Amino acid sequence: MTSSTHKQEQPRIVLGVAGGIAAYKAVEVLRRLRDAGCFVSPILTPDATRFVGEVTFSALASEPARTKLYGDPTTPIPHTYLGQNADLIVVAPATAHVIARYAMGLSDDLLTATLLASRAPVLLCPAMHTEMWEQPSVQENLATLRRRGVMILEPEEGPLAGGDSGKGRLPDPEVIASLALDIVHGRSGGLLRGHRVVVSAGGTREAIDPVRVITNRSSGKQGYAIAEVAARLGAEVTLVSTASLTLAPDVARSIAVVAVSSAAEMAEAVLREASTADIVIMAAAVADFTVAPTTHKIKKDDGIPSIALVPTQDILLTLGAQKRPGQIVVGFAAETDDVLANAQAKLLRKNCDFLVANDVSADGVGFDHATNEVVILSVGAEPYSVEMTSKEQVAFELLSKVAERIHGGTHG
Ligand code: CTP
């Protein structure tokens, strides 16, 4: 996806480049953003200029690259000028040092000062050696920034500088540029503007008695990421959730949250909200069985109890059966065996427009991880694989496919 069908003003992007070998890839990110019609202002840290010259960025950018907080010929206060006018700040590559300084709130160079002087969304693209990436200090700084609403595009596994290999490689410029474009178009044009999206998230809790519950390992992270990205793309979003995670500050006010606990409560809320929705996404792990209710706490002295299970309503199946013309229904399938075959069958049986399948037995996939690896299935299209990446990126990929379907393929 590269652009929305809406007419919009030229998005303004600050491209921060820190001192790492992947700085050369930032040149290609810059070129792609310019080709897509963005006004791009590069900021290079002093160390970045050791890897790629300032002239290269200046030649391709909308205005000369900046490297210093002081002595700018165009404005006496470049950090506030850049920060206040940006629709998005992208930092690629983001080194461990820049990440630490940003997390600490330091502002001793133009890049960190601009990050502090801005209310624009921020997309950080870390790149470094695996040992550095895995350091608790780096991960804690990233967790702090994530909590504050900063979007982090996780590095990939692959060859690194010096002949090493592992996690830490900057994703391809194409991936970074298309993510950045999704974000700015979400703010200015909105691929999903005018559309109402209902997302379910988290694992349901089925009461055994007034004290005990049966639940599952779903954290709700993927559903929250979908709700946040849909809001950034301009949709009106309702999140029906059993989890109470913190929503990213830039979109928290534009997402209505309906708190539920059991499968029955989730069914009631989702089906009610879905009656006026254009897109319904069932990311929740809904219990297939619930417990015949007991109002009294089961006592140990009564002996080992037998718990009778009864089936719950299949919400996704109901949504698929009741689908209005033009309404899009998306299901998830957590599988451990024959992932594709099981998911294809589920797509058809539940009459979904899209089904997101993941192999939850694989490392780093599904329940409670920050990352995911999925295949997006839809009727009449080839399966679309999304390699191991952040749950935000999975959300972007899914919502791009949904937007494409809605707009009839009028954007790429
Ligand atoms: N789902 C639902 N209502 C249920 C159970 C599941 O809406 N009572 C939805 C989930 O939110 C998910 C999809 O159905 O989007 C797939 O759920 P899953 O449990 O993987 O599939 P099932 O059809 O229950 O099949 P099985 O568990 O046998 O694989």
TrEMBL record:
Gene Ontology annotations for the cellular component aspect, listed alphabetically: phosphopantothenoylcysteine decarboxylase complex
HAMAP family registered for this protein in UniProt: CoaBC
A Pfam match: Flavoprotein
Span of domain DNA/pantothenate metabolism flavoprotein C-terminal: 192-404
Swiss-Prot/TrEMBL keywords: Decarboxylase, Lyase
GO molecular function: FMN binding; phosphopantothenate--cysteine ligase activity; phosphopantothenoylcysteine decarboxylase activity
Organism, as annotated: freshwater metagenome
Protein name: Unannotated protein
InterPro entries to which the protein is assigned, alphabetical: CoaB-like_sf, CoaBC, DNA/pantothenate-metab_flavo_C, Flavin_trans-like, Flavoprotein
GO biological process, one term: pantothenate catabolic process
The Flavoprotein domain, residue ranges: 12-181
